[in-house]
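ok so heres the complex, three chains, lmk if somethin looks off
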Amino acid sequence: MLAALPILWTAVISLRSYVDAFSVPLKWVAPLTLENYRGLWVDREFHRNFVNTLVVTLSVVTISLSVGCLAGYALSRYRGSLGFWLLIIALIFRALPHSTLLPSFHALFDALGIRNTLFTLVFVLVAINQPFTIWMLRSFFVGIPQELDEAAMVDGCTRMQAFRRVIIPVMWPGVVTTGLFSFLLAYNDFMLSSALTNADKMTMPAAIAGAITAESDALLMQGVAGAVSITIPLIVLVAIFQKQIVSGLTQGAVKG
Amino acid sequence: MKLRSFLGFSAPSVALMLLLLALPLAMTAWLSVRNCAFDMELATVVQTGPFGPAKVTTQRAKVDASGQPLQVCSFVGAAYYRKVLGLEDRADAPGGDQNEFFGALRFTLLYVAATTPFVLAGGLLLALAMNRVTQRLKGLFIAASLLPFIITPVVGALSIKWLFRDNGLVPHLLSGLGIELYWMAQAWSAQLLVVLYGVWHTLPFAFIVFYAGLQGVPQDSLESATLDGANAWQKLRYVTLPHLAPLVVFVTLIHVMDAYRVFEPVVVLTQGAFTTSVQYLTYHVLLQEDNPYKASAAAVLTVVGIAVLLIPLLRKTWREQRRGG
Amino acid sequence: MKRRSLVMAVATAPWAAGAAAQGCPALVGLSGVGEINLVGNSFRAISHIARQTESCARPGLKVSFKLTPNARTETEQAFASAGRSPFDGAVVSKGVFSSLYARGQLAPLTALVDKHRQRWKLEERMLVRVEGEVMAIAFMQNTQSLYYRADLFERHGLKVPATYADMAQAAATLKAREPALSFPIAQAYAKGFDCATDFINVLAGCGGQVFEPGSAAPAFHGPAGVRAVAAMRSLMPHMTPNALASNSEDVGNQFQQGKSALGVLWASSATRMDDQASSQVVGRMQLAAAPAAVAGGPSSSHLWWDAVVMPRNAQRGPDAAVRQEAAFHALMQGLSTESVRAGNDLAIWVRSDWQPGRGGNAVELAKAAGAREWPGEPFLSLAHGELGKVLPQALSGERAVQATLDAAASAYRKIAVEKGFAKA
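and the predicted structre for the whole thing:
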């Protein structure tokens, strides 16, 4: 299908050497080689970037969800105007282009000496993610009937205990879906990762940025291999979590 | 829920957002009216190297007692804004790269305007078509269609680049048809390519939302329309589309927000030649020109841009919400 | 100790193709350093050096060399950081060196050089001293030379072009008599670095200067500059229509594939012409000094060098000195005699025991023809950048030459003020 064509073609040429991948005239069948992958994963030590991505993504998802669930729950239960305003402000932040924060991040983190760390990147991504996360989680929590936690509180629980005992067991479907989108945002991020990290601290998308203006053929082909390497986990993800992704995309629309 | 609980629960999230979103934004505004530069002094030095000694008159930074270079920071007011907006240069040298922000804004808006109709129309058509596909293929179809949306934007843009670059698949096919086209070499094709990426990337999102919406079209309305003798087109126009209208607004809103932030295709496909976007401008000024102050000015202008763009839409939605309840 | 080195060599061999077998013995005894990070551009010669430096890895020490086309920006940012620099050393061109030095961001290497000079056989020619202090260690040099197809020139009785006018004439002749050569001239006019470099070269050939002597005020938009652009344009009818997107790699490819027969290119690419695997013109391309703009004028090229430098902000803390020393040794391993021997044909090395191959005398030829060293003003890169942005407009005829140069000069003036090189 047309949608998948660019990706399929990239996968095909990733298994060729430069001469065959971009030859004139184009070859439909060409010798296959794993050289690009080897060059990328071994010589360029892509496995470090992979580990970085893993660490960053998992941290972002965990922290994002923990913090977001609390806020989302609160927003679903609170009826005052403060909640409404928080949502509006979150929406505004969600529309904010990330690049507008970049100059001050750069200057600030550099001065504090924490620019080139995974720690900083994680928290930046969590913060950027929050508006979207709390919106999404809120609508899931709205779907959990208030009677549940109210009943628990009548029984003598505090709000927090009610949350822990009653809500947490049933919130997982919504949390999984939101977690997926959190994961996607952290995994796919390029602008912030490439600006805030260097060299071996980079995540995978930032690391293949060299392929964009590759002067050498080897670098270019390794970039192709990198692109495929980055995409394979995503394909697996879509295959497994297709339903959740679809429901995540639509629930925002349907519930406004 | 009591106010105290609310504050307690939402505190971590709000704190994060305040600290890492609101504060940096304020700081960007502060940076945009300042400039720091090294304090330079004229120096004549003797330099030796592979080609022998030479006496060079040059400039270098003044250093303090410990050998650290000195910087001088000052308030410059609207100077960088004027520079980014290209206001200063009317006198000296008109045209060219000087109107950086407006050029970036123009293309960004072009991108938004060009992608939105295709995304909406394409998504709708695809959703309607999907309705007819058999149940068993649907899962695979949806998964495949989702891919452009899920995939890392950098990777997606690179894939498109490798398809369209000189000696790539598409130029090869086109030359078979007799059309020789260097996609990245002229403005219209480069811009088209970026727009193409945008449509490719966002269409799945519209498709999924509309498809879900189609499932909820009230069947009895459809049936009574059929009884009234309406054909497929009329049914579409008078029953389905009005039902989908709020979804169209939703998709448009989200897409405009995201399209305004277009960045990866510009970086990957053209590196700023022929196409710049507002995000790319800030990024480029910060990292390539190494000027966080000018970049901050660009950033503030970007925020103004999105505010201007979104406020009418937001107000409309807000009023509807208030009315609708 | 010997056995240990042997084990190290065996262990690291698969990962360090072509590296010195000893595993960098200089680092024996330096422990607890952790990780050394280096950066450089992704050129072939630097890739070779990178592999050499990485062979210094051993238990407790990891050497990581980042190769990226964005090396200049990353190096400048890293060295300018108020915190600790992510890189402990970098390979830089002369232009970047000037800029870093002017900002006081380089660490003096005099002490380290004096201490280890014997062991690494550092020659005086390699040391870049400013006011006596060693600020960088140069390892390779370069220049732009005229490449021409000796066989075709001989066949048609053409003389080696000495001026740009000669080049255009030779190209016209070749095009008429060799139908296979539709674009006889290939030159790197790509927007940005390449066309600006070419312009500054030709400007020198026209007797012009980039700046007013002793100041940061631009002078490239004077009559010499206009002549320089005219000279560049005079070659374009004989070049591919895609010339304004051709960079050095593209030009090299065009020569290799026999598509072009004439052009000015980096001397270090000479060995590519004889690469059996990818070149179709093995043994047929010759080098000469880049032509002058006017008869009897200086050659339109400059002399370059690349060096290793270390940042002042490398590390604060107790083990800063040890780290610096380890980084120094790693870098020196990259420039060592073994490294040069292993990568002999990859660059025009500065070391006196380098065996010149093809194009080996290019630097001598250029010097003899009057080429000077690439200017060392720290604000040159600013002018270079502004020129690179707008020159294609003048080259393509889209905009008048004088207007384009004025625009570049005015843009440069503004950015020089921003950076503190000029007063408003």
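quick notes: Chain B has twelve helices and four strands. thats all i got rn
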